[in-house]
Amino acid sequence: MSEDPDVPFDVAFEAPPGTLVRLSPLVRRIVAPNPGPMTFKGTCTYVVGHGAVAVIDPGPELPEHIDALLRGLGTERVAQILVTHTHRDHSPAARLLQAATGAPVIGCGPHITARAPTMAETAAVQRSNDLDYKPDRILADGEIFDGVGFTLQAVATPGHTMNHLAFALPEEATLFSGDHVMAWSTTVIVPPSGSMGAYRASLEGLRGRSETLYWPGHGGPVREPQRFIRALLQHRRQRDVAIFSRLRAGDTTIAAIVARIYEGLDPRLTRAASLSVQAHLEEMIEKGSVIADGPPSLDAAFRLTDPVSAHLSSDD
């Protein structure tokens, strides 16, 4: 949701779906035909290497997308299928691609949640997440995968989902960042599959890395990633302050908070904004600054534990 003017978003992205295009000496991209308010122009599927290649994030379960990918590869062989996370726009086509090529599926582990879902959340978790994903090999944080003429390093980046991995390509000082960092938009954190605290910690972890360009799961590349990450972290701190302000003003529901802090929001993104606010509130509950009248949810009532002195420092 690219709603913050202080984050240097880049929405200039023209990539017709169904065409495999070269991005660098080692990397090619084909975009799936699944555009939308949450997927931008579609899911980016990446091909790494030559001859015997690795495919990162085959995308949604669309046979025409896999057919276009295989046509683009011609006589090249898919040797590995890597997955960053198990949202339904990223991992289901791994099964189609594996059936067509026999390549092993490696990368992130199966879907997990940050906390147990409530009864009301269970159906949403099932709709959004690929619960049938079963990798042949799970890569641990820091584990190196050796391809033909390239290497990929798994980088644990939980937050958007708790099983989210990025993949570093040291030969080109780049990172396949999945949905953790994207140039066109902020990342939506949806409890209980995602966690705001884990997301921030993962962003801080990337600040210590040396990659100079990110290839994200949607949209074009993230240039100057360290600068961009600083802006994302500042955006989240500002969102904390705005939510605290609304709680101090007497708002108790997520709907009321969203109406005040997301002015002019595309109505199609209201639910995503509401879930993002819920993720912030759940992190505040974990820190002890906010309480809810029951399990955190879109319908719960929230209030500050200490309305008089509660505040955020610049380091929170």
Please explain how this structure is put together.
The protein folds into 2 domains: 21-232, Metallo-beta-lactamase, Chain A, CATH 3.60.15; 237-304, Winged helix-like DNA-binding domain superfamily/Winged helix DNA-binding domain (Arc Repressor Mutant, subunit A, Orthogonal Bundle), CATH 1.10.10.10. It has a 7-stranded mixed sheet with strand order 1-2-3-4-5-6-7, with helices on one face. By secondary structure, the protein is an alpha/beta fold. The model is unreliable at 312-316 (pLDDT under 50). It is elongated, with a radius of gyration of 20 Å. Helix 4 runs antiparallel to helix 5. It has helices spanning 63-73, 93-101, 119-128, 196-207, 225-248, 254-261, 270-287, and strands at residues 21-22, 27-31, 44-48, 52-56, 77-83, 105-107, 137-138, 144-146, 151-156, 165-169, 174-178, 213-216, 222-223, 290-292, 302-304.
Architecture of the largest domain, according to CATH?
4-Layer Sandwich
CATH class of the largest domain: Alpha Beta
The number of domains:
2
- What value does the Rg take, in angstroms? 20 Å
Class by SSE composition: alpha/beta
Number of helices: 7
What is the beta-strand fraction?
A: 15-25%
Determine the mean pLDDT.
Answer: 94
Helix fraction bin: 25-40%
* Distance from first to last alpha carbon: 23 Å
| CATH-derived topology of the largest domain | Metallo-beta-lactamase, Chain A
- Residue ranges: pLDDT <50 for 5 or more in a row? 312-316
With strands numbered from the N-terminus, the spatial order across the biggest sheet is: 1-2-3-4-5-6-7
The CATH homologous superfamily of the largest domain is termed: Ribonuclease Z/Hydroxyacylglutathione hydrolase-like
Record field, number of beta strands: 15
**Silhouette:** elongated
Secondary-structure element series? EEEEHEHEHEEEEEHEEHHHEE
